[in-house]
Amino acid sequence: MSPTREADPLAQDFVTFSVEAGVLRFGEFKTKAGRLSPYFFNAGLFDDGAKLGRLAEFYARRLIASGLQFDMLFGPAYKGIALAAAVSVELARQGRNVPYAYNRKEAKDHGEGGTLVGAKLAGRVLIIDDVISAGTSVRESISMIQAAGATPSAVVIALDRQEKATDNGNDAPWSAVQFVQRQLGLDVCAIATLKDLLQYLDTNQDPALGAHGARVAAYRDRYGV
């Protein structure tokens, strides 16, 4: 990592918050791809009102700074449901009131029925999730949005791991985020990336945290894109 790279204050604040909240942890963790990762990001641990509210603020600030154009939010089940609701509240607090919707995993056969809940999908729909692991959730969201006659506009996530996806069990030359950008044609906006995490570890004054930097850097050298 170049020491001259200018830090992104929003990303650094988010990484700090994630570490302090216990959401971003260091050690040895097995990923879905079977890799042993020296860090793990579990957005499900933003598990109280204060943490969820602050997370929503980071999403809203990143979205506003990105200049992405959208008319509503869509949260894929399950983690995207709370994110879409919380971020819509925060955007309204910041003067941008937009509708939101989400899907059920199983269709409801009574009441209003169907798999979609919330505002009617219309216009430019922004998909909101925690991470993109394989792009499956994004592909499913695109299908639902298009089937409703709306337009998928972009994806916003909390953390871009910037690592190779897997293709039939082998390392692919692209990341899951790059797959969404290149193959599915959607912009992807992240609050923070692996580069931001490495910069945080490189500049942190806590020796216990700094010790993880070499392992994360080695993982990036092996699997990074």
Overview of the molecule:
It is a single chain. The protein is an alpha/beta fold. It has eight helices and ten strands. The two termini are 13 Å apart. The relative contact order is 0.16.
Pick out its properties:
225 residues; alpha/beta; six-stranded mixed beta sheet; two-stranded antiparallel ribbon; 10 strands; globular
Could you give a quick summary of the protein structure above?
With 225 residues, this protein is of the alpha/beta class.
Mean pLDDT: 92
Strand content: 25-35%
For the biggest β-sheet, the strand order reads: 5-4-3-6-7-10
Instruction: Provide the succession of SSEs.
Output: HEEHEHEEEHEEEHEHHH
- Inertia-based shape: globular
Radius of gyration in whole Å, from Cα? 18 Å
Secondary structure: helix percent: 25-40%
- Biggest sheet record: 6 strands, mixed
Figure out the total of helices.
Answer: 8
How many distinct beta strands?
A: 10
Computed structural class? alpha/beta
- State the end-to-end distance: 13 Å
User: What ranges have pLDDT less than 50 throughout 5 or more consecutive residues?
Assistant: none
